[in-house]
Amino acid sequence: MIKKSLEASERIDWLRLSRTQQIGPITFRELLRRFKTPREALEALPDLARRGGRTKALSPAPLKKIEQEVRVLEKKGGRFVALCEPDYPEALAAIDDAPPVLAVLGNLSLLHKPCLGIVGSRNASLNGRKMSERLAHDLGEANYVITSGLARGIDTSAHKAALATGTIAAMAGGVDIIYPEENRGLYEQIAESGCLISDQPLSTEPRANLFPRRNRLISGLSLGVIVVEAAKRSGSLITARMALEQGRDVFAVPGSPLDPRANGTNDLIRQGAVLTEKISDILEHLATPKLSLCEPTPPDFEAPLLVVDENQLDTGREKILENLSTCPVPVDELVRSCQMSLPLVLTVLLELELAGRLERHPGHTVSLIG
Length: 370
Prior knowledge:
Elements: H1 8-18, H2 25-34, H3 38-51, H4 63-75, E1 79-82, H5 90-93, E2 101-106, E3 115-119, H6 126-141, E4 145-148, H7 154-162, E5 167-170, H8 184-193, E6 195-198, H9 211-221, E7 224-227, H10 235-245, E8 249-252, H11 263-270, E9 274-275, H12 279-287, H13 313-323, E10 329-330, H14 331-338, H15 342-354, E11 358-361, E12 365-368
Parallel strand pairs: 3-4, 3-7, 4-5, 5-6, 7-8, 8-9
Antiparallel strand pairs: 1-2, 2-6, 10-12, 11-12
């Protein structure tokens, strides 16, 4: 795909489509593969949703509300960057569920430098915070930008240590919402010399279901993720899992088996994460050639789906619905089971999702909503 900067009206179309109910990042890409522009997709939404069985009209995000959001962010000195634009970070663009539009506040150029994520416990130990600071400082001196989530504990220590060399904070809520409040000063410093990003609308308060989405931004931007301290069921382990799914490296700092905050990191090491005690452990691993390593490939919105035979759609819907349940099933398995073309299956799945009847899951799996 040839990247190009959008006109203001085109960027608003991207925002409206991405903010429309039932449309996630993967569905957004499917729509742009079927239609030439977001505007054409917006016009087609009501009919697609109706064909999928939706009874209540599916309306795009209100134009005036989106225009107001753009004005507010610009007044704060920020901007929205669409997935097709040169300013969108290539590493993040390469993941399956890359946000169609990012809100960016601060130094946008940091998004195009080599990044490493540092995450860990909010209730961090003194030694954990010191380790986070040391790694962030030394990696910054080695020309890596540090990404993290602005949470208290390990995140805070990493951001502070990397302020002078470059740090990016991924936000769970809107890019204008400071969370936690105790990090207001750090937020303002990052806005001044670093970079703040979010895929959520402005003024969105952080909620539990939004933190995993924030975590995928941290790992998606990064060559690898370093976990300093993490309990067995922590959000940091979610970030590590997402990093593995995205083909990123995972590094873990070992800790005492007597400290619950080390249980998660020690488990990561047992599962194959790179044992990390100093910066050389990271740099040597990153310098090692990997057979499976490939350059990030940005999405191609210019290759439309094959034309679907409209006469086959009704029969296709019935057969696909018979093969779906509330248990996730891989899309390629659904194609083989139904013995239908991929474009036909994808079209029906798109209609069902817009109707609010289908949910997408990691690993290209889908299920009916119970």
